[in-house]
Amino acid sequence: MMTRHHKLLCALALASFSGLAVAAGALEGPAEKQPLNITAIAMFIAFVIFTMGITKWAAKKTTSASDFYTAGGGITGF
Fold first, then answer.
1. CA-to-CA distance for 51 and 64, rounded, in angstroms?
2. Cα(46)–Cα(25) distance, integer angstroms
3. Looking at residue 15, what is its pLDDT?
4. Secondary structure string (H, E, C) spanning the chain
5. Model confidence pTM above 0.85
6. Which of 7, 31, 43, 50 is least surrounded by Cβ atoms within 10 Å, i.e. has the fewest?
């Protein structure tokens, strides 16, 4: 249980460090717009579709709570 002094000390510590976040400077100079990276977008979509496929396949194999919690008994200690 926190005492009143402990709460005050924590509040003062947080307040003393808040100035560091404000002290950071803004980004200088003009921002350069990057071109659309179709390859990265396609790879991301393929990764998501592949992951969803694995999830659907695993969901079909799990038929009971016992299968879910014990991985179907397929995981051993060693």
1. 22
2. 39
3. 82
4. CCCHHHHHHHHHHHHHHHHHHHCCCCCCCCCCCCCCCHHHHHHHHHHHHHHHHHHHHHHHHCCCHHHHHHHHHCCCCC
5. no
6. 31
- pLDDT, tens digit, 9 for 90 and up, residues 7-40: 888 888 888 877 766 666 677 778 888 899 999 9
Confidence of residue 6 (pLDDT cuts 50, 70, 90): confident
Q: Report how far apart, in Å, the C-alpha atoms of 36 and of each of 33, 39, 41, 45, 56 are.
A: 9, 9, 9, 15, 31
Task: Give the total residue count for the chain.
Answer: 78
